[in-house]
Amino acid sequence: MPELPEVEHYKRFLDRVLVGRQVARAEADPTPLLKGKTTPKLFAEKLAGRTAKCVERNGKLLIVRFDEHVVLVSHLGMSGKWSLRKADEETPPRSRARLFLDDGHVLDDVDTRMLGRLEVLSDHELARRDDLRSTGLDPLRDGLDPHRLGALFGKTSRPIKVVLMDASVIAGIGNIQATEALFRAGIHPKRPASSLAPNEIAALAEGILATIEHTLAAQAHEDEIIYLSEKKAGARNPFLIYGRVGKPCPRCGAKIAAVSIAARTSAYCPRCQPATRSGLPRGRG
DNA sequence: ACGGATGTTCGCGC
DNA sequence: CGCGCGAACATCCG
Questions:
Q1: Residue nearest to nucleotide B5 (CA to C1')
Q2: CA atom of A260 to C1′ atom of C1, Å
């Protein structure tokens, strides 16, 4: 599930249920989620007895700091989530790792596709790991100043959607949030980033923050957002156009179209998000 | 059965 | 070096 809003949701969730608790016992199955030196044995040994001090989020990366300089790094990939249960309840399907807490709860790292990451290391090692440090602006932490964005966008003619999803520019924006933000701003996903006018950049900054807040709020009401299959999703797809190709645009009624950009499907409204900005008097949103 | 799905990283070719 | 493209990872679903 993870793009920035979902990861932020799990950060707050772990703040609530894990921070201050001691890990009585820890297990990890031997899956591709375990990276670097982390093995099931090391996972269990390093985490047993540790007390969680705080949770940080860098873009889509979660970092849990424990006492004794122990750090747990978690990336949810495409299909990961953290799930809480009571110790006497059954292990959920596709639980790949478990933290048995001192209050009788268990946290499961549940991940179908296992494209995420799970790594235990020391805070000293973490500090030296460039690959675990995010370089881009974090919309929730840093805000999105249109002038800074303009400076970043001005340097490249890559499609604006690709730039939005570039973690070295803005951290945490994936296919859904990029699609939604561009729709909110009325900007075609293939527009060269350097072609955006200042008012468009400002609208995009607002659109990004708005879709993040919207998704965060939706997630707070549902324990899980179901994204793609409309049948199951029904009202549970909280997005304006993502997953709604072929349906009417919620703003103008035109049929939502799709275009492939960098091998990802991009939904867009052909009328609200024209390919060129010449001659379109975009009014107030 | 085939294609695509919220992410990231790599190699290839221009 | 920039950039687009496709593949890879691994699994499920329509």
A1: A228
A2: 25
Q: Cβ of A133 < 7 Å from strand B?
A: no
DSSP letters, A38-64, are --HHHHHHHHTT-BEEEEEEETTEEEE
Q: What is the pTM of this model?
A: 0.92
A267 touches strand B (CB under 7 A): no
Q: Which nucleotide is nearest to A75 (CA to C1')?
A: B7
The structure tokens listed for A165 are: 């999803």
Q: How far is A246 from A260, CA to CA, in rounded Å?
A: 15
Flag the least confident range among A3-7, A70-74, A153-157.
A153-157
Contacts of A260 (CB under 8 A, 6+ apart): A266
What's the CA dihedral at A197, A142, A76, A26 to 10 degrees? Answer: 180
pLDDT tens-place string over residues A187-201: 999 999 999 999 999
d(CA A214, CA A5): 9
Rg (CA), chain A: 20
Which one, of A118, A84, A114, lies nearest residue A100 by Cα?
A: A84
In this structure, of A48-52, A99-103, A147-151, the range with the lowest mean pLDDT score is A147-151
Distance A229 CA to C13 C1' (A): 9
Q: Which helix (H) or strand (E) holds A119?
A: strand A117-122
Cα separation, A285 vs A143, in Å, equals 21
Nucleotides of B under 7 A from a protein CB: 4-9
Which strand C bases fall within 7 angstroms of a protein CB? 2-7, 9-14
